[in-house]
Specification:
By secondary structure, this protein is of the alpha/beta class. The chain folds into three domains: 11-198, P-loop containing nucleotide triphosphate hydrolases (Rossmann fold, 3-Layer(aba) Sandwich), CATH 3.40.50; 204-266, Helicase, Ruva Protein, domain 3; 282-351, Arc Repressor Mutant, subunit A. Helices cover 50% and strands 13% of the residues. The chain has helices at 17-31, 46-57, 94-103, 112-129, 151-161, 174-181, 204-218, 224-233, 238-249, 254-280, 283-293, 301-309, 316-328, 344-351; strands at residues 35-39, 61-65, 75-76, 84-86, 133-138, 146-147, 165-171, 194-198, 299-300, 332-335, 338-341. The strands form three sheets. Strands 4-2-5-7-1-8 form a six-stranded mixed beta sheet, with helices on both faces. The radius of gyration is 22 Å and the shape is globular. The structure holds adenosine-5'-triphosphate (ATP) and magnesium ion. Magnesium ion binds at residues 46-47, 67, 138. Adenosine-5'-triphosphate binds at residues 4-8, 13-16, 19, 40, 42-48, 67, 172, 238-239, 242.
């Protein structure tokens, strides 16, 4: 079946021009040895692009899934166990196997520095053994909150000394990822070396094509208006259209399937908003979103500032920062000088919040 709740890893199932282009870009960057970050809003298909790339090109890799820790402001290094090991571990030396055992937490270590050494040992060896080796972090902004090991130092070391190891990241909070990679302008500008690939929601047309393809394959009958309504209401977010598609394939009628998909989408956003606010820790974010959720006509900077002043006193630099982070997270968009909320399910979730 076309629709699946799990990330796509088969290139034939990866829908959308931008998504497929992202896979090619990843390939190019990896060949050139460039560290790369795949950035995009929640549920847009970042993990799918990554998994498809890994599955298709078969580079050896070590894959960390940090998505369970999004929104936490403290994560023990002991949470860092690889979710996928994509290489022949039996060919490693005894020492490197021991290091891998430490990284998998098969052996307990007492101190972060032992963990760091294990990582360095293993990477040194794969750097010798392979022409290319990928170290992959899904939702890498979480690394900024890892305690006990110096992840930034490790990444810097890999970049400077292990020529065959390439780091690939995804991130749904690019503002945070950038701060993490270059915390201040006086520090070495590590972020300068990270290439960025952005992926966005599908176009309305791509969204409808995706649904059509899935319905035709599963022999689900549909009306054109139903597709139209689904892509409008779910703001062609791949993850949300997938939920709707699954309900239809399971026999639900359009109205019920859409209602359930919207409900799920709104609850997912409620959870994400909580995580987002946990990290950014300011009521101004909710208030800006809440104002933007009131109207589909959008707000100019000065209109937004005026509306916000009714709720709080905010300086221009602060409003700029808030807007930049919301734009970076793909929660809002800017078109022709006006700001809009980026997704209908997000607008619904925001309107339920207290401001
Ligand atoms: N390009 C695509 N083609 C087909 N299905 C897709 C595509 N992108 C995403 N999906 C579907 O959408 C859902 C979410 O995708 P995925 O987990 O890759 O997104 P994500 O951006 O990593 O999300 P999250 O923010 O939750 O980590 C999955 O069920 C996946 O099957
Ligand atoms: Mg993901």
């Amino acid at each position: 079946m076309i629709f699946s709740e799990r990330p796509v890893s088969d290139i034939r199932k990866l829908h959308g021009e931008e998504h497929r282009r992202a896979v090619q870009e990843l390939k190019k960057n990896v060949e050139a040895g460039k560290f790369t970050a795949v950035l995009g809003p929640r549920r847009v298909g970042k993990t799918s692009v990554l998994r498809t790339f890994l599955n298709h090109y078969r580079y050896p890799y070590l894959y960390y899934d940090l998505s369970p820790y999004i929104g936490l402001t403290g994560v023990s290094y002991q949470a860092l166990t690889p979710a996928l090991i994509g290489f022949e571990t039996s060919k490693l030396s005894g020492e490197a196997q021991l290091s891998l055992g430490i990284l998998k937490l098969n052996f307990k270590v007492e101190r972060g520095v032992e963990f760091e050494n294990a990582m360095i040992n293993l990477l040194r060896e794969v750097n010798e053994k392979y022409e290319r080796f990928l170290l992959v972090f899904d939702e890498a902004q979480v690394l900024a909150f890892v305690r006990g090991v110096n992840m930034m130092g490790l990444l810097q070391m890999i970049h400077n000394t292990l020529d065959n190891v390439v780091v690939i990241m995804t991130g749904s909070m690019p503002g945070l990822l950038e701060n993490m990679l270059s915390p201040s302008s006086s520090k070495p500008m590590f972020a300068r070396y990270v290439e960025k690939i952005r992926i966005n929601r599908w176009s309305l047309k791509e969204g409808k094509e995706y649904l059509k393809r899935g319905f035709d394959e599963a022999n689900v009958e549909y009306l054109p208006d139903e597709l139209e309504e689904a892509v409008e209401e779910l703001s062609p977010v791949p993850g949300f259209l997938t939920i709707y598609g699954i309900h239809r394939v399971n026999g639900k009628k359009h109205g019920e399937a859409l209602e359930e998909a919207i409900d799920e989408a709104v609850s997912l956003w409620e959870r994400d908003l909580e995580a987002f606010l946990n990290i950014y820790n300011s009521k101004t974010y909710v208030r800006v979103l809440w104002i933007l959720a009131q109207s589909r006509l959008g707000f100019s900077w000065s209109e937004l500032k005026r509306e916000l002043s009714r709720l709080e006193t905010v300086s221009n630099p602060k409003l700029s920062r808030v807007l930049k982070n919301l734009l970076g997270a793909g929660m809002i968009e800017k078109r022709d000088g006006k700001y809009y909320i980026a997704e209908r399910p997000l607008a619904r979730a925001v309107l339920r919040m207290r401001v």
